[in-house]
C-alpha cells in the first residue's frame, strides 16, 4: 500500500482512513494511523464507531457514526478541498449496511473523479473463524466497494464468504484471489488462513498478472 501511494506523490502524502476506533486493543484506526505516520504519511482518521473494544469479544459498548453523519463529514471534506489531496483511502470495519452504502457511494464518486491518482484499500471486515460479526446485509455491499478498490485484504473467512471459494489449498486460494481480481482490485492479500496450505511458503498475495503463493498459519486476532 505504501509503495503504491508513493508512486503517486513526492512529498507529504495525505491518506483518509475510514475505520473503527477502540479504547482497548489495536485494531482499526489505532492499528493504521501510527504505522502510516511513521512512514511519512499524513493520516486523516474518519472513525466509523468508537467502541470499548472490537466486536469479536463477548461484550462491547460505545457509539457508531450514522450514515448521515458520515456523509456530512465527507461532504464537508469535499467543500474544503481535502478529498482532492488524498492519494489513498483505507476502509475497514463499518458494521452497518446503511453506513457502508453511504461510504461506497462517496468512494465510487471519488474514484470516478480521481482515477489512477487514487489508491483505495478495502479491508472487508465482516467476520473471522467461521463467524460473522456484522449483520448479514453488510457483506454484499463490500462487493460493491471492491469494484472501486485497488487493493483487497480479506482474511480467509471473508475471502471465502465474498467469493464463494474457500481458500483451503493453494489452488483454491488462487481461484479465490482471481475472483477478487475480476471485481477490480489489482492486489489481493489473504491475510490469514485457518489451516496451513499444503505446498505454501509465504503470505497469500496475488496481483492481476497472475503471480501468487500460499500462506502460513493464521496470526492471533488483534
UniProtKB/TrEMBL annotation:
Pfam families: Phos_pyr_kin
Domain Pyridoxamine kinase/Phosphomethylpyrimidine kinase stretches: 92-205
Claim: Nucleotide-binding is one of the keywords in the record: yes
Stated name of the protein: pyridoxal kinase
Keyword Nucleotide-binding found: yes
Keywords: ATP-binding, Kinase, Nucleotide-binding, Transferase
InterPro entries for this protein: PM/HMP-P_kinase-1, PyrdxlKinase, Ribokinase-like
Organism: Neobodo designis (Flagellated protozoan)
Enzyme Commission number(s) from the entry: 2.7.1.35
Record region (Disordered): 200-222
GO BP annotations, alphabetical order: pyridoxal 5'-phosphate salvage
Family, as annotated: Belongs to the pyridoxine kinase family.
One MF term in the entry's GO annotations: ATP binding
Signal peptide bounds: none
GO cellular component, one term: cytosol
Amino acid at each position: 500500500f505504501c509503495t503504491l501511494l508513493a508512486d503517486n506523490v513526492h512529498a507529504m502524502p495525505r491518506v483518509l482512513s475510514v475505520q473503527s476506533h477502540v479504547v482497548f486493543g489495536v485494531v482499526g484506526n489505532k492499528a493504521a494511523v501510527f504505522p502510516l505516520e511513521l512512514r511519512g504519511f499524513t493520516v486523516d482518521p474518519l472513525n466509523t464507531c468508537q467502541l470499548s473494544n472490537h466486536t469479536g469479544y463477548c461484550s462491547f459498548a460505545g457509539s457508531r457514526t450514522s450514515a448521515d453523519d458520515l456523509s456530512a463529514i465527507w461532504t464537508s471534506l469535499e467543500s474544503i478541498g481535502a478529498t482532492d489531496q488524498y492519494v489513498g483511502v483505507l476502509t475497514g470495519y463499518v458494521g452497518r449496511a446503511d453506513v457502508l452504502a453511504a461510504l461506497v457511494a462517496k468512494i465510487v464518486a471519488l474514484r470516478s473523479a480521481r482515477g489512477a491518482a487514487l489508491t483505495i484499500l478495502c479491508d472487508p471486515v465482516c467476520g473471522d473463524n467461521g463467524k460473522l460479526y456484522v449483520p448479514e446485509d453488510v457483506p454484499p455491499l463490500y462487493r460493491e466497494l471492491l469494484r472501486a478498490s485497488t487493493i483487497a485484504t480479506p482474511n480467509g473467512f471473508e475471502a471465502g464468504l465474498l467469493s464463494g471459494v474457500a481458500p483451503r489449498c493453494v489452488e483454491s486460494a488462487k481461484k479465490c484471489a482471481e475472483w477478487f481480481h475480476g471485481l477490480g482490485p489489482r492486489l489481493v492479500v489473504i491475510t490469514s488462513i485457518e489451516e496451513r496450505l499444503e505446498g505454501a511458503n509465504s503470505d497469500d498475495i496475488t496481483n492481476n498478472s497472475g503471480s501468487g503463493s500460499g500462506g502460513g498459519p493464521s496470526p492471533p486476532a488483534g
